[in-house]
Write a structure and sequence with these properties.
Distance between the termini: 30 Å
Strand order of the largest sheet: 1-2-3-4-5-6-7-8
Strand content: 5-15%
Structural class: alpha/beta
Order of helices and strands: HEHEHEHEHEHHEHHEHEHHEEHH
Largest sheet: 8 strands, parallel, barrel
CATH architecture of the largest domain: Alpha-Beta Barrel
Helix content: 40-55%
Number of domains: 2
């Protein structure tokens, strides 16, 4: 295979691609954080690890916990550079101290910072300003990628503005806090693996977040499934999130959830084979329209099939789907799977 690379042929020059691992695994207790890093080292960077200061730290011990998080991020256990941290809500009195601790200790290595419970664009901007101030104080030249949790009425109301913010890389849905914010008007069943995909207000929130992210080239990240012992329930939820709701990433809260999530967000072998055939034929035709299995394809459908191949590349892992070696070498050998945001 030769000629113009598919990314260059199919997308505008300078167009930004945010291609994050499809699973975001959360852990906050020290033993579990260390085990999460160990598992990531074995499976590879097909999932991110988010070290959790918000729910993982004891009350009053947030800064000490932030110091531990920074130590783990900069430790040899972080083999792939895909470890982030969830900080406190920006209104928390220790937000600045936690951010300063993580940024001063691991600001050059942290993959991203997750900001929970933003109430709208003003909260996000305040968090950005404080994080950037801490970054400058630490003598760092980078802008740390930021993720945010949509779990309040205000955040959902301004979700398109939040997704448009240039510092945002991904938005996640916080199911439990969102349901609780309705003060009993949404029943508890809407937090279950079945109810969260059927209750109209929860479905509306999920689709609004996904639509806002895709409109601005950001990554929508689906909420947790708390029934982690029901493997079939997790698989069903992950498949719905990926196939019906347009999410390209999902949270894990237990190690047993990671591989099923990766599998659910991985294209099938048949989809990948079809995509490779079409992109190869398009490449041979210098990206002019082609006929494949009695169906016409052009640059519009080429973009879709190229993204199938990129998804397969991002989700390939030991024991899982692997792209053919010649495809990896031709299309991914000289460039990383993720093109970072500016």
């Amino acid at each position: 295979m030769s000629g113009t690379h598919p990314r260059d042929a199919l997308f505008e020059a300078g167009e930004v691609f945010r291609l994050l691992p499809v699973c975001d695994h959360y852990s906050g207790v020290e033993a579990r954080m260390r085990k999460s890093l160990e598992l990531q080292g074995k499976l590879g960077p097909v999932f991110d690890v988010t070290l959790d200061n918000e729910d993982g730290a004891p009350v009053g011990g947030e800064v000490d916990h932030a110091r531990l998080i920074a130590e783990l991020i900069t430790s040899p256990a972080n083999l792939h550079g895909r470890v982030g941290a969830r900080v406190l809500p920006v209104v928390h009195p220790r937000f600045e101290s936690v951010v300063e601790t993580i940024v001063s200790g691991a600001g050059g290595s942290v993959a991203y910072l997750m900001i929970p419970k933003v109430r709208g664009l003003a909260d996000l901007q305040r968090a950005v300003d404080l994080i950037d101030a801490a970054t400058r104080s630490a003598g760092l030249q980078r802008e740390i990628p930021l993720h945010a949790l949509i779990e309040t009425h205000g955040a959902l109301h301004e979700v398109f503005a939040l997704a448009a913010h240039r510092r945002i890389e991904s938005l996640s849905f916080g199911l439990m806090d969102f349901v609780s914010a309705h003060r009993g008007a949404i029943p508890q069943t809407a937090m279950s693996v079945d109810g969260q995909f059927t209750h109209p207000l929860v479905v509306r929130a999920k689709t609004e977040i996904a639509a806002a992210c895709h409109a601005h080239g950001k990554i929508p990240s689906h909420c947790v499934v708390t029934e982690f012992k029901r493997a079939s329930a997790l698989q069903e939820a992950a498949t719905k999130a990926a196939r019906q709701f347009g999410y390209t990433r999902m949270w894990s809260i237990h190690p047993s959830q990671i591989e099923p999530i990766v599998e659910a967000f991985t294209p099938s072998a048949a989809e990948v084979d079809q995509a490779i055939e079409i992109i190869r034929a398009a490449e041979t035709a210098d990206w002019a329209p082609i006929r494949h299995d009695d169906t016409l394809h052009d640059r519009a459908s080429y973009r879709y099939f190229w993204q199938v191949i990129e998804r397969a590349h991002r989700t390939s892992y030991a024991g899982g789907l692997q792209l053919p070696e010649e495809i990896e070498a031709a299309w991914f050998g000289a460039q990383p799977p993720d093109t970072p945001a500016p």
